[in-house]
Amino acid sequence: MWPAVLLATAVSAQWLNYPTPGIPRTPDGKPNLSAPAPKTRDGKPDLSGLWEPGSGGSIAPVSGAAEVDPQFRDIALNVKGGLPFQSWAAELVKTRRADENKDDPDGHCQPLGLVKMHLHPYPRKMIQIPGLLLILFERDTAYRQIFTDGRPLPSDPQPSFNGYSTGKWEGDTLVVETIGFKDGLWLDVSGTPLTGAAKVIERFRRPSFGKLEIEITIDDPKAYTKPWSIKVNQSLALNTDMLEFVCKENEKDVPHLVGK
What we know:
Elements: E1 49-53, E2 58-59, H1 87-98, H2 114-119, E3 124-129, E4 132-137, E5 142-147, E6 164-170, E7 173-179, E8 185-186, E9 193-194, E10 199-208, E11 211-219, E12 228-238
């Protein structure tokens, strides 16, 4: 059983049907999401855009809930052989599942961390400028900064939900390293843990105008016996924008998340 708050239907965003500028078109005038990815002035793929889970792409108005990546519920779904848990981490996941995941931070309107936010069904907007990739999240009107200006990772970071991220280009792939996480983060609804010892490596690729691919590697020796990876697909959402969403506004679910 998943906490009720996690299954809320996504509301179609504002500015419905306002045309997204700069969209390539087929000869019959339809959006050509298979066209080559746009480039920045320095020739790198431009990751900017409004993105949502899945690989099909969408054009407003949206008729129902956003697509939910199955990895949002179980991040190990496509990991061959399952996750290489340390023994304490395996027991922790069993305990969380037995208690119906009542302590999932999403159900308690807490920040989720960068990995779970990649999988979250609500949209996110990427803004790529020289030296910075900024990600704005509809979920709780949050943000994340990825610095691409050559700065090093901090040597003694103050632990935070999103950690501290720096990126560099390797060909057409933006490789991002993040450290400095708070202990106790959940990577999915099932309670898969991330600890403060973790380094997360993301590889962002935009193979076409309408598709974004993110390969995520978790290197957390405190919770896992070896690094492991997943792949995330996102699609460009057209003719729409984000809607302000504050999780705690009129929130009534938490008292009912009592587990077994």
